[in-house]
Specification:
elongated, mainly alpha, 9 helices
Length: 290
Amino acid sequence: MNQYKRQNIEFLKRRVEELKKKLLEFVQLWYYYQNDVYQEIMFKYDSIFGELEDEIDSKIQTSRELEKKVEFLRMKLSRGGSMEENSMKFIDVLVDRQVRRSASRPTVQNGKVAQPQSKEKVAESVRKLKCEVNDNYEIPVLYRNLVKKLHPDVSGESDDFHQFWNNVQDAYRSRDIDSLRVLNLTLCYDIENEEKENKNLETKLKTLLLELEQNIRRHEAKLNNLRFQEPFNFKDKLDNKMWVASRKNQLQNRIVQIDRKIKHHNYLLTALSDSLTERDRKRQSSAMTA
């Protein structure tokens, strides 16, 4: 190997180590936001707005249940059904089942089952399924590589173990294949082994540099986007009394809107029940007259 090529390889190796270190900093920062910062923000947010948020969730659930009951009574009325003594109890049971059940069945709009997916949507579903199958294979492979690299039984309690072991476990549990790939790229790529083989080392290092640069740009953008998402965008606002007062006002207005919906659903329930009862009364009267 000539002097120029050797110097270039040394430069590339140093550059690879610099970018690996920078990428790992982004990975650590991502996990710091996802765990420490998230918990800190949510603890503070819940202490201020928790009761209002819980009230909203509870009332949304009530509103949805009432809406379902209205749908059942409307259907009963349109199909000429009657208001038996146990009708509302039966409807309560049906609504409870629907609320628990995931919405996996075809949606119904205007009495018609939703149309089949377009070719584009079907193709996208197939693509996602293929990705999921590939992920099911790749995730255990990536995880095993990292365990072999980091586990104390293999390498002792190294700095990498203390810094990244929990991140690896979190990524594996949450099936975060992106993080597992990045951790493999930065922690498991063995330059010394590549150098021993001495096969196209310069080309391999250049390819690795490009991959590292792409990942750094992507993770930097990912982290910047995270900072603008809830609840991370609340971080600097929770100490602002004006913002807290404004947020409370928004949540209270939301409760007022849901209460109006609940009131409307209750009105419809009463009206529909009365209509069914009145129709039953007329039927009984006609039957007795006949």
